[in-house]
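TICKET: design request
STATUS: open
ATTACHED STRUCTURE:
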């Protein structure tokens, strides 16, 4: 297993605890939730069932019944409702021959994709809560893992539920995509010999989703792989974006329109900016969609640094979404290899590399030597200056330093000429004036190949290279 040290530590703690454990596991489709649990427990479950995508209540109960039968239930008829299903699950878990963990004797129950089980008017959640409260919570040797790709469902109905699951959950795992270093490890395990630059460009397209990376083939170049994955008639990932959004949000029209709106402001948009595109409804529906998109990792929000009053910016962070909206939507491009090194391709590279940097802020802090210092990150644009000014990434640190990060994508060392230096000084001065901060401002460049020799020495305080983003982070100490 690659990475996942902290997640494995949580599951190990569950095995060694002397109490019943209710674990909420969530993360986007393809991130490896099922693989993590199956690999860690070596598929030795006391019970395992998974929801059926798009299935009605009858189909969900039929699938659950098949799992009950597999694990020893003798009734075999489809339960009439979820209350009966969980009643029969209790009997299965009480069988003398029930499978247990070899070393600890724990009974492990894994309910995968539970949001799909929770169909309209099915009372699934009430039955699950009753199962836990009336029986499972008294079983000191029981681990119940509920997992789902719809983070908003897990958070709303398990983690933050004010009703049946209030204060019931004992552990929470938000499984994140791989970082660049973990992607490199996975590619090496598949004997794919990409250079660091190619690994970076691969991440700019696929992000850190192991499921997507598993499609890459060692006999092809990166460009050939992307061509096969997205730009052929039967390419396996050509429709992935639409399938992903609909699997997460069901009726996803508003979610899709909001994501498209972000192309008008890739460096951050206010709620008013999003509404001005004319593509999305206002009110509670917009708020709900923005919250769900952020919880599922497609966007991030951050405060407006230049305002004392409440206000937030929203920014698209998901690499696959940016790639799809730029190149695949409406069949905009027929061949990936034909687009490489065109002006449109280079413009996309700049935006995609910014997303990689946003997703690797810990690696940036590690290179700066302040990984343990509390900080917050955001983008910024001037509302007053002429000419305009914007900064791709700002890291506001508790040690009275603000790193103003200039992110530039280039395949060669980046050179800061006189015009570029003038522009950077303008950004520094404008930010100082409009923010009113008295912290030290450190201009930091983030480029794949670093700065050209003797370039930017007068104004650049710190420099981040692509190799720094690919480095493994130090293991956090045990608490």
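STATUS: resolved
RESOLUTION: sequence designed for all positions
ATTACHED SEQUENCE:
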């Amino acid at each position: 297993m690659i990475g996942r040290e902290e997640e494995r530590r949580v599951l190990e703690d569950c095995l060694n605890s002397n109490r019943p454990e209710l674990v909420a596991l969530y993360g986007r489709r393809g991130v490896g939730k099922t693989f993590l649990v199956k690999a860690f427990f070596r598929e030795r479950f006391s019970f395992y069932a998974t929801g059926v995508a798009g299935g009605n209540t009858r189909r969900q109960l039929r699938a659950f019944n098949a799992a009950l039968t597999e694990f020893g239930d003798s009734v075999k008829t489809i339960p009439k409702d979820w209350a009966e299903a969980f009643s029969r699950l209790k009997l299965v878990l009480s069988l003398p021959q029930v499978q247990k963990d070899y070393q600890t004797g724990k009974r492990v129950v894994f309910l995968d994709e539970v949001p799909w089980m929770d169909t309209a008017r099915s009372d699934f959640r009430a039955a699950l809560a009753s199962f836990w409260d009336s029986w499972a919570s008294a079983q000191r040797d029981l681990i119940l893992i509920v997992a789902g790709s719809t983070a908003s469902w897990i958070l709303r109905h398990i983690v933050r539920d004010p009703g049946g699951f209030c204060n019931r959950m004992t552990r929470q795992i938000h499984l994140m995509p791989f970082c660049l270093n973990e992607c490199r490890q996975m590619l090496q395990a598949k004997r794919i010999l990409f250079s660091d630059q190619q690994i970076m460009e691969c991440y700019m397209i696929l992000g850190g989703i192991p499921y997507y990376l598993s499609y890459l083939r060692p006999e092809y170049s990166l460009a050939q792989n992307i061509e096969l994955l997205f730009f052929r008639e039967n390419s396996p990932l050509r429709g992935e974006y639409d399938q992903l959004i609909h699997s997460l949000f069901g009726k996803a029209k508003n979610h899709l329109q909001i994501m498209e709106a972000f192309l008008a402001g890739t460096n951050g948009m206010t709620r008013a900016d999003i509404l001005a595109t004319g593509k999305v409804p206002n009110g509670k529906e917009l708020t709900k969609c923005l919250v769900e998109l952020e919880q599922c990792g497609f966007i991030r929000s951050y405060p407006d640094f230049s305002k004392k009053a409440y206000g937030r910016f929203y920014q698209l962070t998901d690499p696959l979404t940016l790639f799809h909206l730029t190149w695949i939507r409406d069949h905009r491009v027929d061949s990936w290899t034909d687009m490489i090194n065109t002006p449109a391709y280079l413009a996309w590279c700049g935006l995609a590399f910014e997303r990689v940097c946003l997703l690797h802020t810990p690696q940036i802090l590690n290179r700066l030597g302040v990984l343990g210092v509390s900080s917050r990150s955001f983008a910024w644009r001037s509302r007053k200056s002429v000419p305009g000014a914007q900064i791709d990434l700002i890291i506001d640190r508790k040690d009275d330093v603000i790193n103003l990060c200039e992110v530039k994508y280039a395949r060669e060392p980046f050179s800061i000429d006189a015009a570029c230096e003038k522009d950077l000084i303008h950004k520094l001065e404008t930010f100082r004036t409009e923010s009113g901060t008295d912290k030290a401002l450190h201009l930091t460049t983030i480029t794949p190949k670093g700065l050209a020799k003797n370039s930017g020495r007068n104004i650049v305080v710190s420099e981040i290279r692509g190799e720094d983003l690919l480095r493994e982070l130090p293991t956090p100490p045990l608490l």
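CLOSING REMARK: DSSP finds 21 helices and twelve strands in the chain. The longest helix spans residues 418-435.
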